[in-house]
Design brief:
It is a single chain. The chain has four helices and five strands; from the N terminus they run αββαβαββα. A hairpin with a 4-residue loop joins strand 1 and strand 2. By secondary structure, it is of the alpha+beta class. The longest helix has 15 residues.
Length: about 140
């Protein structure tokens, strides 16, 4: 597992705080994400729904987009927080977005009541699509 215990706790708390900003009036499934960059910075995101469902933005994708818009493209770990009863892994689209920048990222998921799970991206997406094989996994 990546990260020190104190950084893992900070990551969990940042994901839970980001979840509070989620805009999910249609599904009522709020998600927060906190991304730990390779240089130790925390970048957060939350899901943002839209009445045109295809225009919704996932928390994990927003955290990646926010970091990339700041010029940050190397990531070590991402934490996801939901109000579900079990830890929730990222959706398939978010897995693919994560693989674009961090094929070796550690993914941790937390519930408000303290349940947690941790996976490697390769466990969740063993055969990611790679348009340019010289960039990323082969």
């Amino acid at each position: 597992m990546a990260g020190k215990p104190e950084s893992r706790s900070s990551l969990r708390e940042a994901a839970l705080a980001a979840m509070e900003h989620a805009y999910a009036p249609y599904s009522n499934f709020r998600v927060g994400a906190a991304l730990l960059t390779a240089d130790g910075k925390l970048v957060t995101g939350c899901n943002i729904e839209n009445s045109v469902f295809g225009l919704a933005i996932c928390a994990e994708t927003l955290a990646i987009a926010s970091a990339v818009s700041q010029g940050i493209t190397e990531f070590d770990e991402i934490a996801i927080a939901t109000e579900d009863v079990e830890p929730t892994p990222p959706c398939g689209t978010c897995r693919q977005v994560l693989s674009e920048f961090a094929p070796n990222i550690t993914i941790s998921s937390y519930t408000r009541d303290g349940k947690e799970a941790t996976w490697s991206l390769d466990e969740l997406l063993p055969h990611a699509f790679v348009l340019n094989p010289s960039r990323g996994r082969m």
